[in-house]
């Protein structure tokens, strides 16, 4: 029996969804919806020149010194994962945000929202890992707060850390997206995707022959080395939610430049790649914790790499691309196989593919 | 990863592309059926390696895209029941129904969970005896053995609080429907490799014969696609219209017999609505016999007004390969992944999503200066 | 839905009925428990194609070489791999 000819097909299309009357998980994903939320709700309410910089932290001029000030909240689940806990994540996360401003991290605050029924042992483990991280990062936790909410109203522990850092006198330039220029080289400080995969592996019940550990760590030593070596650092950016792709899209969009990447140069460990294959994830979009991207003038790329590779946290640094003029506002990837493709901003949460 | 990474080798890709250039003497239009293949093509910019004479069009290879809107509405209604744990593959969550998607329902408090396998959903039923666990069984024939096994194991172990909302669609009837349409532009097919891994490719012989089109069972990695295109082009140039198997490392002519037996035990073939294409006879599965008790369609009464779809998105034309996503007036303007007007923009395998995500905002691949016969690279360029 | 990934069988657990036959499969360093009901011929050390938690085919290793042999005949692949990929 022949099928009914489909020349008179129905142009079926659903009514467009009512937009934006509720928060969805994707608003926290770090991608497009997060940015929309910031632009539509927070900026109009709070807008001021400092906030409008839209960098990882705010740089404040106080009595002749430049301080960096930042805040970050941590809601990761599970609380304890291969390579870390919500605690050291909270310390390193804020420490790294300060480092991304070119500031030496000095002091942190920690605010805890604890859920009724949380095991005291869990809290002890988390706090111990925070202290260890603080010591390693060379910062002090100087003030804090604790609240408890009813059972069912919080995921065990939520943590907020805020931090203050000092931009040393020898750092003359403004480090931020505004300083990125055509001709800059793009360098990443290590292989991608470990943190996101470490978290997902627990949630998805993946076993590893040798476990993938989160890469959570302080990146300040690498930044400090770059600054002390006199490298002209234009911009530093960590690669957390939304991964490398999202970070680079933000910068490309801010500066209306094209960031051109070479797929074959982007470092991803084999097991991480395998996990991404199975889970249907793209490593470019997976969160990293102890990794950052740095923009330096093309001519200084080799020198920058040399400096970074001598520091343990960035010993596998690699140049992955460069900044070009056009097409503005895009990130373009030259694929291993053939042509180029645009690397878009993450839209929504990265849902594991099955198909 | 073995049997995966080596099929992404650049040198080999260039060699295959060279062979295609050598073969082609006139224009040909080739369709790949499966969304996974569309994804590979767009993600790797494979069209940039091909001569301009080859036009690749993307078929209705996305079961998410072709799931009728009524079923999405039904899924949402079921998910919103307090006793239900609604399980699904990730792709289905963002597809818009008449008023909302499963993701929206989740935001409003419905217990919607993403699972990797239907057996995960069955496990939830075992560990939550006081809840009703419903699994959204969407897919081509590839996923049918897994869903059949979930139903079979549920029956074997007397698990009552489990059901399947079935939206299985079959590829060969869709191919026939496309080929019999007077709009059909397709001259050769890359058949969906994993569908054929399960079902075999016996069914394609009469189709190839009747419509005089070459059909090449093709895999999903860049080398597979290029190899499949080479085989298809060779047939077209030589005037043949046969069924060939590029994906022989994973697919045999008879397919997977134990899987087929389980499918026949659990499912029967029925007519099915394809969103964007209309009804295609004998193109879907539904639960049969003693497994009907696991049909969520029967278990949950559904009272709702029939879905009204406003004709704005042209997904029908896209799914038939007649238009490319960037030719839709709404593409990337009103219709984006955050605000999709149709399923092809939502599903990660949908053609519109692939085009949007990988930057095909305009007719990028047909620019003169981009299209050169590839030289074999000597030493790596860096 | 089409995403299927090849992995190597490292262990097989038989649980009575073939429907419950499971295996531990290694995907480039990651191990997952997979249902092997549909590949009764699968053995430890063989590669299977896995889709949504089920093995749907055993990889034919000879056929897997076909495209590389073809390209090798065309020349130029030797220097890339050194030997035909194993």
Write structural notes for this entry.
The complex is a heterotrimer of chains A (355), B (382) and C (86). Chain A is built from eight helices and 15 strands. Chain A has helices at 32-46, 86-99, 120-137, 194-204, 220-228, 243-255, 270-279, 301-309, and strands at 58-62, 65-74, 80-81, 84-85, 104-115, 140-149, 157-167, 184-188, 207-208, 235-238, 258-262, 292-297, 318-324, 330-334, 340-342. In chain A, the strands form three sheets. Chain A has a seven-stranded mixed beta sheet with strand order 10-12-8-13-11-14-15. Chain A has a five-stranded mixed beta sheet with strand order 1-2-7-5-6, covered by helices on one side. In chain A, strands 3-4 form a two-stranded antiparallel sheet. In chain A, α2 (86-99) packs parallel to α3. Chain A is globular. Chain A starts with 31 loop residues before the first helix and ends in a 13-residue tail after the last strand. Chains A and B meet through α1, α7 and β15 of A and α1, α2, α5, α8 and β11 of B.
Distance N to C terminus of chain C: 29 Å
| Secondary-structure element string of chain C | EEEEEHH
Biggest sheet architecture of chain C: 5 strands, antiparallel
One letter per element, helices H and strands E, the order of chain B comes to: HEHEHHEHEHEHEHEHHEHEHEEHHHH
Percent of residues in beta strands of chain C: 35-45%
CATH topology of chain C: SH3 type barrels
Counted beta strands of chain C: 5
Mean pLDDT of chain C: 85
Structural class of chain C: alpha+beta
Task: Give the strand line-up of the largest sheet of chain C.
Answer: 3-2-1-4-5
CATH architecture of the largest domain in chain B: 3-Layer(aba) Sandwich
Order of strands across the widest beta sheet of chain B?
Answer: 4-3-5-6-11-10
- Which regions of chain C are unreliable across 5 or more consecutive residues at pLDDT < 50? none
CATH top level label of chain C: Mainly Beta
- The low-confidence parts of chain B are 362-372, 374-382
CATH topology name of the largest domain in chain B: Rossmann fold
Mean pLDDT across residues of chain B: 85
Overall geometry of chain C comes to: elongated
What is the share of helical residues of chain B? 25-40%
């Amino acid at each position: 029996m022949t099928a009914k000819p489909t020349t008179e097909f129905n142009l079926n299309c659903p009514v467009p969804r009512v937009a934006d009357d509720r928060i969805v998980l994707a608003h926290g994903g770090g991608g497009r919806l997060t940015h929309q939320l910031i632009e539509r709700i927070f900026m109009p309410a709070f807008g001021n020149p400092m906030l409008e910089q839209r960098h990882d932290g705010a740089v404040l001029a106080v009595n002749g010194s430049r301080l960096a000030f930042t805040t970050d909240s941590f809601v990761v689940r599970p609380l304890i994962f291969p390579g870390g806990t919500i605690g050291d994540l909270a310390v390193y996360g804020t420490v790294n945000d300060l480092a991304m401003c070119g500031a030496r991290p000095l002091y942190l605050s920690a605010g805890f929202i604890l859920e009724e029924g949380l095991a005291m042992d869990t809290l002890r483990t988390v706090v111990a890992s925070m202290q260890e991280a603080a010591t390693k990062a060379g910062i002090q936790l100087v003030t804090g707060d604790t609240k408890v909410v009813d059972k069912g109203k919080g995921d065990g522990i939520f943590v907020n850390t805020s931090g203050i850092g000092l931009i040393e006198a020898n750092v003359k330039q403004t480090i931020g997206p505004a300083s990125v220029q055509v001709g800059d080289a793009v360098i990443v400080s290590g292989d991608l995707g470990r943190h996101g995969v470490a978290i997902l592996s627990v949630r998805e019940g993946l076993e590893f022959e040798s476990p993938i550990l989160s890469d959570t760590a302080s990146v300040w030593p690498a930044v400090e080395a770059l600054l002390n070596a006199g490298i002209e650092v234009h911009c530093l950016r960590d690669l957390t939610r939304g991964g490398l792709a999202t970070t680079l899209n933000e910068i490309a969009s801010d500066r209306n430049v094209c960031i051109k990447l070479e797929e074959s140069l982007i470092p991803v460990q084999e097991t991480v790649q395998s996990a991404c294959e199975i889970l249907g994830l793209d490593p470019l979009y997976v969160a990293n914790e102890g990794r950052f991207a740095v923009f330096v003038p093309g001519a200084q790329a080799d020198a920058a790499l040399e400096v970074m590779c001598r520091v343990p946290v960035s010993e596998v640094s690699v140049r992955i691309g460069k900044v070009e003029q056009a097409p503005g506002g895009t990130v373009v990837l030259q694929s291993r196989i053939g042509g180029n493709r645009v690397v878009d901003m993450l839209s929504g949460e990265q849902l594991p593919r099955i198909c | 990863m073995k049997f995966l990474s080596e099929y992404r080798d650049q040198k080999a890709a260039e060699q295959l592309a060279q062979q295609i250039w050598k073969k082609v003497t006139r224009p040909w239009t080739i369709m790949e059926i499966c969304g996974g293949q569309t994804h590979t093509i767009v993600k790797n910019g494979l069209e940039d390696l091909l001569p301009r004479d080859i036009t690749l069009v993307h078929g209705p290879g996305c079961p998410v895209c072709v799931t009728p809107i009524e079923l999405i509405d039904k899924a949402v209604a079921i998910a919103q029941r307090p006793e239900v744990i609604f399980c699904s593959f990730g792709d289905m969550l963002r597809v818009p129904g008449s008023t909302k998607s499963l993701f929206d329902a989740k935001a409003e408090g419905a217990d919607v969970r993403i699972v990797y396998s239907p057996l995960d959903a069955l496990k939830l039923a075992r560990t939550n005896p006081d809840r009703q666990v419903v699994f959204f069984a969407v897919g081509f024939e590839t996923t049918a053995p897994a869903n059949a096994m979930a139903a079979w194991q549920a029956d074997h172990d007397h698990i009552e609080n489990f059901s399947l909302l079935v939206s299985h669609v079959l590829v060969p009837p869709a191919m026939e429907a496309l080929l019999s349409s007077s709009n059909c532009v397709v001259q050769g097919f890359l058949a969906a490799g994993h569908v054929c891994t399960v079902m075999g490719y016996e069914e394609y012989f009469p189709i190839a014969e009747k419509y005089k089109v070459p059909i090449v069972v093709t895999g999903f990695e860049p080398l597979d696609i290029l190899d499949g295109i080479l085989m298809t082009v060779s047939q077209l140039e030589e005037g043949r219209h046969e069924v060939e198997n590029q994906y022989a490392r994973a697919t045999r002519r008879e397919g997977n017999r134990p899987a087929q037996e389980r499918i026949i035990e659990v499912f029967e073939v029925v007519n099915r609505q394809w969103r964007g294409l209309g009804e295609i006879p004998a193109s879907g599965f539904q639960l049969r016999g003693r497994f009907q008790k696991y049909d969520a369609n029967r278990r949950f009464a559904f009272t709702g007004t029939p879905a009204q779809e406003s004709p704005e998105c042209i997904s029908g034309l896209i799914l038939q390969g007649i238009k490319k996503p960037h030719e839709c007036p709404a593409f990337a303007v009103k219709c984006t992944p955050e605000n999709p007007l149709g399923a092809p923009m939502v599903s990660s395998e949908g053609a519109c999503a692939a085009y949007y995500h990988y930057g095909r905002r305009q007719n990028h691949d047909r620019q003169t200066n981009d299209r050169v016969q590839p030289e074999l690279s000597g030493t790596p360029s860096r | 839905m089409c995403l299927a990934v090849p992995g190597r069988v490292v262990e097989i657990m038989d649980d009575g009925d073939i429907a419950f036959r499971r295996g531990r499969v290694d995907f480039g360093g990651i191990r997952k428990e997979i249902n092997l009901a549909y590949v009764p011929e699968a053995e430890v050390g063989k590669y299977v194609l896995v889709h949504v938690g089920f093995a749907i085919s055993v990889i034919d290793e000879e056929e897997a070489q076909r495209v590389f042999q073809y390209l090798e005949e065309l020349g130029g692949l030797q220097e890339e791999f050194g030997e035909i990929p194993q």
